[in-house]
Amino acid sequence: MTDSGRKKPNRLIKEKSPYLLQHAYNPVDWYPWGEDAFDRAKEEDKPIFLSIGYSTCHWCHVMEKESFDDEEVAELLNTLFVCIKVDREERPDLDAVFMKTCQIMTRRGGWPLTIFMTPDKIPFFAGTYFPKQNRFNQLGLLDMLPRLKIMWNDHREHLIASSKEIISVLQKKSFTPFVKKLDTPVLGHTFEELTGRYDKTYGGFGQAPKFPAAHDLLFLLRYWKRTGEKQALKMVEKTLQAMRYGGVFDHIGLGFHRYSTDQHWLVPHFEKMLYDQALLCISYIETYQATRKMFYKKTAEEILSYVERDMTSPEGGFYSAEDADSEGEEGKFYVWTKDEIQHVLNKKDAELAVKYFNIVTDGNYTDDATQARRGLNILHMPLSLEQTARQTGDDPADLEKRLKSIRSKLFLHREKRIHPFKEDKILTDWNGLMIAALAKAAQAFDSGEYSSAACKAADFVLKDMTTGSDELLHTYRDGISSIPGFSEDYAFMTWGLIELYEATFEVKYLKAALKFTENLLQHFWDGDHGGFFFTSNTAEKQFIRPKDFHDGAIPSGNSVAAMNMLRLGQMTGNTKLEKTADLLFQAASKNVIVSPSSYTHLMSGLELALGPSHEVVVSGILKDADTQKMLRAVRAEFMPHKVLLFNPADDASPEIHQVSSFVQNQPMQNKKATAYVCTAQTCKKPTNSIREVLSILNPPRK
Predict the structure, then answer these.
(1) How far is CA 470 from CA 464, 513, 515, 538, 572, in A?
(2) CB under 8 Å to 623, separation ≥6 — which residues?
(3) Residue 622 CB: number of other CB atoms within 10 A?
(4) CA-wise closest residue to 318 among 420, 427, 471
């Protein structure tokens, strides 16, 4: 960050976004997005220079240091343009519109995102990172800015005409006409595409860079459950193991880095994102349920330990990210030299750490261009704990105890280093994902600690990140919530609330999930073509209203909303929700049939819609041992096709009857916990037998 002690702040100093505040002392005369900037541009007949990024973006930092904090570049920008800075995490709606523009114009995208546009918000030139000066075949800002200004002055009509053609293409692409009804074969096609991209040697999909893509794994688990296809489960397990053993996992402080820059999961981009922790945690939880292997449970618990320690606000919400950089260097906080390990630990422990974490004298983290990182090591595990124990002859339990002590000492030593920047704004959508992960962990691991943390976060969002009319707000920082919610805020928060209801049976969470779904349908649904727009019908208008079904770094709001509506429809008996989900699948069909593996979370929703699915109602007294035993048994298994409701027998007027009226006809019988299971609109006889319940929900494969 710049030295605020010697510079005059610009307009960004009044903003809440940490990313905008990082640029508040640039000599660039930045405006936040707003009418003041556009009014000035119109008055002075200047084009807009729009820069979009986020606070933990490595190349955003590079461009700031190289150009935006440079007086020569700033003078050009201030003289020739009106400059606007946007935080993509705060305004994902603007990022979605202008990223699509950049991709159409240049066939690439990324951050920092650079857009030149008219005062009427019509983009005419786009790109990503630009250096200060010309470099290789890339035009630098010092040359590019005057050229664009000349084009603006002398060839404006041509620029605007070309831009309007691009806008027309984008507007046409925003329509998704129905092609065909999606059915069971598309699930097989999705699996085949994933199999074709699967890395049999190292796990994951593709070569490099390699991303976690948790929604791919969640789909494969469901495909394995549906078909018994062993390869699907094998792909999941190998990938999750390779990531946990690789350098993409922080072996000292826990949690996952953003992605691997290489094929082997060794060299990460060191940024840590909340959404990755949440989605990967869910992947490890469900794989534990499917396999009962403690490795996956332990990894999920490690992720949650990291989030609790480093990413949880006093209010109970969750921070967004931690930067890859510290002291101006990516990964500096996380890497180790062999000498440092030997200095921190005693000789015996150092020998074990060097072997277990594959530490070498020359280092494994090198920069081919400068060799500046020679001698630095990214900790990773070539062998599992059990394999290491067999090799050393140690008892695995003793070895694990020693390694825990080693990690603790290295962690305390690492804490003395200068930490990466923490992005401490709280986002509703990403918090919804984290609430879902905690609630799933609470169910699978029978943990009151996790359910309490999920409740605290959900209660915070419901209290402090909604308007008086119960509409969600997108962001919170320093006691202030702002920006009307987007479709992902509603969809992801609803996901978390559904999971939290099933973890606690607090009906207020189910009611909130239904309320937010109603809001989503009222303000975001495309009544002409189906699916949910990213922005509300009351939001600021742009030249396109983005709507996306594609699952990228996180699942799309449409994918999650489809799953939510199916589950809520089953939980409440509201068939309209399930019919709307079907319309959503139809709206996405044109895109899906081209490349179904680009829509894996949507395909998980389709897999649920195709059934058979189960509605389970347990009636009993919640605190009684027999009720708890039945609930634990139902929650422990990997059964993604079920929804779970609880009917309290010791309440004369249970609140759940207001939401799911059919539950009142399913009382406790024989003074014991009683399960009612319905499948494909047909209900089985009520039973007090846990074994019978599980046999219905998880029948032996033919």
Answers:
(1) 11, 12, 8, 15, 21
(2) none
(3) 16
(4) 427
User: Domain ends where: 414, 442, 477?
Assistant: 414
Instruction: Give tens-digit pLDDT for 330-364.
Output: 999 999 999 999 999 999 999 999 999 999 999 99
DSSP symbol at 664: G
If phi > 0 it is left, if psi is from -120 to 50 it is alpha, else beta; for residue 249 that is: beta
Listed in sequence order, the residues at least 6 apart from 201 whose beta carbon sits closer than 8 Å to its beta carbon are none
Q: How many domains does the chain have?
A: 3
Tokens of 702: 């033919």
Q: What is the pLDDT of residue 175?
A: 65
Alpha-carbon gap, residue 457 to 434, rounded angstroms: 9
CB 562 within 8 A of CB 521: no
Please tell me whether the overall predicted TM-score, pTM, comes out greater than 0.90 for this model.
yes
In a domain, 683, yes or no: yes
559 within 8 A of 549, measured Cβ to Cβ: yes
Q: Say how far apart CA 74 and CA 45 lie, in whole Å.
A: 19
Which helix or strand (DSSP H or E) is residue 677 part of?
A: strand 674-679
Question: Of the residues 385, 414, 443, which one is the last residue of a structural domain?
Answer: 414
First to last CA, the chain: 62
CA distance linking residue 605 with residue 563, whole number of Å: 5
Sheet of 113-117: strand order equals: 30-32, 82-87, 48-53, 113-117, 123-127
**CA neighbor of 101 nearest in space, from 117, 112, 88, 85:** 117
User: At 132, phi and psi to the nearest 5?
Assistant: -70, -45
In the structure encoding, which two tokens stand for residue 17, read together? 């976004």
Give the CATH number of the domain where residue 657 resides: 3.40.30
Please name every residue paired with 86 in a beta bridge, in sequence order, or none if there are none. Answer: 52
In sequence order, the β-bridge partners of residue 50 are 84, 115
- The tens digit of pLDDT for each residue in 357-384 reads 999 999 999 755 444 467 999 999 988 8
Q: Does residue 281 lie within any of the structural domains?
A: no
Instruction: Give the C-alpha separation, 245 to 380, whole Å.
Output: 6
Q: How far is Cα 270 from Cα 380, in angstroms, rounded to an integer?
A: 14
Task: Please calculate the CA angle 317-322-328 and round it to the nearest 5 degrees.
Answer: 155
Is the Cβ–Cβ distance between 421 and 54 less than 8 Å?
Answer: no
User: Please, which residues bridge with residue 312 across strands?
Assistant: 318
